[in-house]
Amino acid sequence: MTADPLAVYPLGSALDERGRLHLGGVDALEIARRHGTPAYVVVEDDLRAQVRAYREAFHRHAPGSHVSFASKANPCTAVLRVVEQEGLGCDVASGGELALALHAGFAPERIHVHGNAKSEDELAQAVEAGVRHVVLDGLDEVDRLARVARERGRVQPVLVRVTPDVRGETHDGISTGQAESKFGFGLQDARTAIDRIRDHDALRLDGLHFHVGSQLLDLAVFRRAVAAVVPLMDGLDEINLGGGLGVAYTADQAAQLPSVDAYAREKVSAVRDLLGERVRIGDEPGRSLVGRAGVTLYTVQTVKRNVATWVGVDGGMADNLRPMLYDARYEAQIVDRFATDGAAGAVHCRVTGKHCESSDVLVRDAVLDAPASGDVLVTPVTGAYGYAMANTYNGVPRPPVVFVGGGRSWEVVRRERTDELWLRDVAQPAA
Ligand SMILES: *Cc1c(COP(=O)(O)O)cnc(C)c1O
After folding, report:
1. Cα(271)–Cα(287) distance, integer angstroms
2. Is 356 a known active-site residue?
3. Considering the domain boundaries, does residue 8 fall inside one?
4. Does any domain span residue 304?
5. Contact 134/123 with Cβ under 8 angstroms?
6. What residue numbers bound the domain in which 299 lies?
7. Which CATH number do you get for residue 302?
8. Number of structural domains, the chain?
């Protein structure tokens, strides 16, 4: 059996008769030529399809539920606009993300504000905007938000973020549901927070929230999380179940990936079984909404053999921090010569970035067809937490975001210019 070489690529991806990758109906080499590399490419049809899959799955299993996009996964205006147009809400984790969500057109009543260390300014921005929920994350914040709301003559609806003390199967760096976590209230403290909120006229407690972690492929953890918060739900009528569904980064992960429908069914049935029919459900996927829609294009600069074969590209940890942060695994291919392991010309190599860190390795074990300087290389499934974490380490300007669809490509974020690297440098040394 030959594995599908495009198993983890965006919907509608194809290899033409010459073996060249097409994304959204556009030749990937053409995208690289037109917009330069490195470039983040987002296939709009894939993004819309995934947003609709979420909306429809939750609507099917829990009419009246609502789904929000965890905007930190890909905080770019065009992506947020698509999500907004398709009717989802938006979840933000800072004043900056709140401003961006409003800029992208989200009605404040569809925005949820998170954060484990919100500033007073951020709380004030949330209250003044009139967001649907501020998700409370600590006792200090209860009193602070109450004061901020009272001073403005508002009653702010809130949820309490609870740490259900369950552990999903994922990397420690993206696990958030265990008892020892910087996020949320432990089960004991949540009770205290709930009582404290009820003492404040300027706060209205609607329900609870949890988010147990990210890149989860096993759905059983969600039922355990719901079970853990049942004793706290007394008299509350809303529960937000966070996000967390994984994406397949590699073809072998694709086989074990639960569908959006299975994820929604599992979460909703846990709530219905343990909390009854009346409780309103919210969900907030990030990675699984946008991950597969995005790929990154690079140009190979150098190929060298130092024990291993090193394929050096024109990007790296500045445009994709995940391999370094979480040992994330990716696939890679040359866009006009997909390789098959074992075939003539196929070489096992390390795809490495251009940054001055030994651990700047994008793909630890890629199989490429005779890679050479000038080749355009693609890493799939970079739509989540790539652009979001981009930085300018080593003075490398941040890449553009290019949308593709219907045989067209267009930039929705332009490439950063070199002179923007010192744009904020406002003074010279004294001497
Ligand atoms: C990051 C985050 C999400 C989204 O997580 P994914 O794993 O990307 O789906 C949802 N809710 C909260 C509170 C988050 O911090």
Report:
1. 23
2. yes
3. no
4. yes
5. yes
6. 14-44+292-422
7. 2.40.37.10
8. 2
Closest ligand 1 atom number to CA of residue 209: 13
Question: Which listed residue (76, 90, 349, 356) is catalytic?
Answer: 356
How much distance in Å is there from the Cα of 47 to the middle of ligand 1?
A: 17
CB-hemisphere CA count at 13 Å for 41?
35
Indicate the residue among 272, 289, 306 that finishes a domain: 289
User: Are 108 and 232 members of one domain?
Assistant: yes
Tokens of 91: 């979840």
Same domain, residue pair 126 and 237: yes
Domain boundary among 245, 266, 289: 289
CA–centroid distance, 417 to ligand 1, in Å, is 31
Side by side, which strands form the sheet with 26-27? 14-15, 21-23, 26-27
- Cα–Cα dist 186/208, whole Å: 12
CB neighbours of residue 329 within 10 Å: 14
Query: Could you tell me which of 326, 324, 328, 377 has the C-alpha nearest to residue 351?
Result: 377
pLDDT category of residue 1 using cuts at 50, 70 and 90: very low
What is the per-residue pLDDT across 147-161, written as a single tens digit (0 to 9) for each?
999 999 999 999 999
pLDDT in tens, 399-420: 999 999 999 999 999 999 999 9
Q: What is the pLDDT of residues 205-263, one digit of tens each?
A: 999 999 999 999 999 999 999 999 999 999 999 999 999 999 999 999 998 899 999 99
Calpha distance 316→322 (Å, rounded): 10
Ligand 1 lining (C-beta closer than 6 Å): 70, 72-73, 91, 114, 211, 214, 242-244, 284-288
